[in-house]
Amino acid sequence: MRKLFKYFKSYIKETILAPLFKLLEALLELFIPLVVAAIIDNGIGLSDKSYVIKMIIVMISCGIVGLILSVLGQYFAAKTAVGFSTKLKLDLFKKIQELSFSDIDNLGTSSIITRMTSDVNQVQTGINLTLRLFLRSPFVVFGAAIMAYFIDPSISGIFFISIGVLSIVVFGIMLLTMPLHKRVQENLDTVLSQTKENLSGVRVIRAFTSEAEEVEKYSSSIKKLERSQNKVGNISNLLNPLTFIIVNTAIILLIYSGALKVDSGMLSQGEVIALYNYMSQILVELIKLASLIITMTKSVSCGKRISKIIEMNTCIFVDKDNNNVSDKYISYKAVSMKYRGAKEESLENISFDVDKGETIGIIGGTGSGKSSLINLLLRFYDVSSGNIYFDHLPIESYHPKELRDRISIVLQKSVLFKGTIRDNIKWGNNDATDEEIIGALEIAQGLDILSKKEEGLDSAVSQGGKNFSGGQRQRLALARAIVKRPEVLILDDSASALDFATDAALRKAIKNLDYNPTVFIVSQRTASIQNADKILVLDDGKLVGIGSHDELLNNNSIYQEIYYSQFKKEDNKYE
Questions:
Q1: In angstroms, what CA-CA distances link 488 with 101, 149, 203, 209, 496?
Q2: Would you give the distance in Å from CA 159 to the centre of its chain?
Q3: Helix-strand-coil split of the chain, %, nearest 5
Q4: Which residues contact 424 (CB under 8 A, 6 or more apart)?
């Protein structure tokens, strides 16, 4: 939480001025009951109309000045709260960009979204109300009690006893609700996660007519959220009735004691009215303070959730002092990898070398670790043991940005962003000309996409590229990677939506690139990798074969099984 206080540094002046103006407004508010008492005792009691008019003018003047002070206080409070949340959101977004995939997997996308939106907004509201009321309300409460003491010390005891009882109630409820607010936010994370999952998978849900089951699951989560909100709400709602009971009881005692003192001539009628007004002020401010305490409790809970991300030490580290070198361009040395929270390793003791300009095929069954293997090269995840070398140096010696600037990856699930075709392809190279973009599209076998769009490169791309087919999205993503002219091009099952002829033309175009990049092709199709210089065969996280297509077809049973599941067996040599 302490790290969040740095966002106040730019708003020190506003942080001081906001409560200061609110305190000055409160001071005028404490002065008003004395003016009312003077009007009753000296004006009305003595039938002095001029005095009444003069005091009314004083009251109006106090009201106008109080209004100005209040507006100024709220302006500075709002400026601080909005500025604070803006800087916090920016830093939070930057921090998320720095997190490793392991960190993001651990936090959960839905939880991150909740913290970026709902939690930050709650903190903003808390700061705004705190600057406006945290000093003002207690000042009015104790100020009213002190003013009552000067009017009549014996009756002021009612005020101090009431404040003590009310403080116990307010802070007791605050302590009870703090952990409950945290649980509410966690349940909100779950609801948001289910909402995101259902919206993204709506076609699958409808295809399997699972709407009723999903509604039932969602209803269960919503009810759990409702129960947690009701629980904290019911406890919080005790504040207002309890404060009303305590304060109204105090008012009854005050009026009764005041009446006796007026009857005996120890107090004037105006002073009793002033005491009543001070008790009413205490009631109003304590209700405000109770609401503020609830808001502050929510804000603190949300702030802790945000701090958990801000204070996270990213798993990605850079070691410029690592002097180890490899004689190979890319080398995996006894590499193992385990996902955070997993019981078993996803990759185990994998070693292989790659020369510059080679094409490497990677094949294996589902869950064999193909994507995990290439994710390590980009440092999306880090090894749990072993070493990886890129351009002869350990990858830990490169900053992730430096490493990824030299490598392009095309994923099976191609992601496009809202904008135009040109905008999306220029993600690979922001300085790319239209000629370079069209050249990249030609290599990616995507020129026909432009021919079908009247606006060409300026054709609109909807969010997620939903207005393009799966094959079109993959080819646009390929063009985005190719226009970058990377040293290493990774195709992670990125031609799965392409037909065999287009896939073959794509591989031929990549092989004929004029700058000869190192290429990794991850595929389920043996046809896509059989012309690679080396083929890596993975099975259950282990490297069980490495060699050319012919070598593996002769001596690797797993490769044989994959190959002959896709092509007709011409003889029974491997039976």
A1: 21, 81, 36, 44, 20
A2: 46
A3: 65, 10, 25
A4: 416, 417, 461, 465, 476, 480
250's tokens: 């105090």
In single-letter form, the type of residue at position 87 comes to K
Residue type, 96: I
- Give the model confidence (pLDDT) of 218-230 as tens digits: 898 889 888 888 8
- Structural tokens at position 176: 């009870």
**DSSP H/E element including 132:** helix 120-133
User: For 460-482, what is each residue's pLDDT tens digit?
Assistant: 988 888 888 888 898 999 999 99
Element (H, E) at 29: helix 12-38
Average pLDDT in the chain: 87
User: What is the pLDDT, as a whole number, of residue 569?
Assistant: 60
Rounded to an integer, what distance in angstroms lies between the CA atom of residue 11 and that of residue 158?
40
DSSP assignment, residue 523?
A: -
Q: Which domains does the chain carry?
A: 2-310 (1.20.1560.10), 407-485 (3.40.50.300)
154, exposed or middle or buried, with CB in 10 Å at 0-12, 13-18, 19+?
Answer: exposed
Our CA angle for 299, 302, 303, nearest 5°, is 80
